[in-house]
C-alpha cells in the first residue's frame, strides 16, 4: 500500500509540473526570489484567476510556499529539492544525442542561479576545480565533504563551514546542470559560495532573470584563489601554483 501511495504521489507531482504554465512559473522561481500571483500570471501568459488556480495546485502538492506580508501574498519554491528536480527534468527534456549543444542564452549558460546556488558553465568548472584540487571529496554518491585544505580555503573566504554542517539540509551535494549536463555544487555550501561571490562583488545578479554576471574583480579573484583562468567566454583551468602551508593558493 505504501508503494502504491508513493506512485500516486509521483504521478500527481509530475502532472502538476507538466502543465506548461505551471512549468514556467516554477522555473521563474528558481532564482530564489518570491513573486506575486500577478507577476507569475504575466510570466506564464495566463489570466490572474488561472494563475491563482495553478498556484493553489502547486501549493497543495508542496511545490511552492505562500508568504503573506500584510495585504501582499508572495510565492516561492517550497525548498531547494524542487529546484534540483526541475534542473534534472530540464536535462531529461533536452535532446540526449551525443552531439548535444545547449540551446541556452549565452549569459544564462555561463552563470545563473539554481534556487540559492550557482549553476552554468562557471559553476560546473568551479565544482570540477574543487574536486581536482582535492578540496572537495566524495562522501558518498550524493554528498561531498571538505578536505582539511578545502576547509582552510573556504574559511579564508569567511565561509563558516562548521555552521553550515549543522543546518537541516545537505552540506554539499552534486546538482546536475541542465545546460552543461555535468554537476555543479549544491547544498548549503553551494549556497554559501554564491552569497560570498555576490557579497564580494565577484558576481552581479540580474533583477529580472536568473543570470549572473562575472565582474573584473571576480575574474581576478577566482583565478587567484581557485586556479581558474577566466578570459572572455573561454574558460580554462590553469596550471596550479604551489600550495601554501594553509592549503590555499599563494599569489
Tell me about this structure.
A hairpin with a 2-residue loop joins strand 5 and strand 6. The protein has helices at residues 2-18, 20-28, 37-44, 48-60, 80-93, 106-110, 121-132, 148-155, 161-164, 187-199, 216-226, and strands at residues 64-69, 72-77, 112-114, 117-119, 136-140, 143-146, 173-176, 183-186, 203-205, 212-214, 228-231, 234-237. Helix 2 packs across helix 3 and helix 3 packs across helix 4. The radius of gyration is 19 Å and the shape is globular. The chain folds into two domains: 2-78, Arc Repressor Mutant, subunit A, CATH 1.10.10.10; 104-237, no CATH class. The protein has eleven helices and twelve strands. The chain is of the alpha+beta class and 251 residues long. Helices cover 45% and strands 20% of the residues. The N and C termini lie far apart (61 Å). The strands form six sheets. Strands 1-2 form a two-stranded antiparallel sheet. The longest helix has 17 residues, at 2-18. InterPro entries: ArsR-like_HTH (IPR011991), HTH_ArsR_DNA-bd_dom (IPR001845), HTH_Metal-responsive_Reg (IPR052543), WH-like_DNA-bd_sf (IPR036388), WH_DNA-bd_sf (IPR036390). It comes from Pseudomonas hamedanensis. GO terms for molecular function: cadmium ion sensor activity; DNA binding; DNA-binding transcription factor activity; lead ion binding.
Summarize the model shown.
The protein has 251 residues and is an alpha+beta fold. Helix content is 45%, strand content 20%. A hairpin with a 6-residue loop joins strand 9 and strand 10 (212-214).
